[in-house]
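Handout, section B. The chain below has 225 residues.
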Amino acid sequence: MVRFCVFACFFIATSCAWAQSSSTGSWYIYIGSQHLSKKWNWHNEVQYRNYNAVGDLEQLLLRTGLGYNLTPGNNNLLLGYAYIFSEPYVSGTDLKRSVSEHRIFQQFITRQQFSRFYLQHRYRFEQRFIEDTDFKMRYRYFLSVNLPLTNREMVPKTIYLSAYNEIFINNTSPHYDRNRLYGALGYTINKYLRAEIGFMSQALENRHREQVQVVLFNNVPFLKD
């Protein structure tokens, strides 16, 4: 655990220094999912996104939702809401503008395990109400895999590799919105907490963006096991 913490601090410090002198951004993410009962869960999420390491806000995202498991511990249907505050740069200037977005979304998550590979599929449909912009809808497909390295399963004190790809499709032209490709090193702190440090490349319609990501997952249940 100590060796991993030292590595994590070194990785963050190095990444932040690089981000301050390049176009690489930094995303700090918290994702929680708390069991309310054997079938119901509460999703809660905060993402603080920067154009650099810290201090140059790109976007603040707050997301929540209520989910229901169709089978024990799996096949989760969720209805949610998100608020997104963005500060994009005005093209060709150093000036920023503020944009607020309210988003309603529905999603379905299913998980699978093949030997040591932990897979997750997420299908999400979004209805987007963006300030000073027409109403938009978007479809997203997310595929992730976790591979434990120091144990055969994702038990406490396991170092693991994580990767995902997510594609975004608009309901109107241009239909292609973006694609995200991610790779990371993770650590299962205990039964309910794990953390990841990784790098994500985002391909938009006419440009690319890269982000260092620091993620904390919290699954501490409200209902005791």
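Note. The two ends are 26 Å apart (CA to CA). Compare this with the example in section A.
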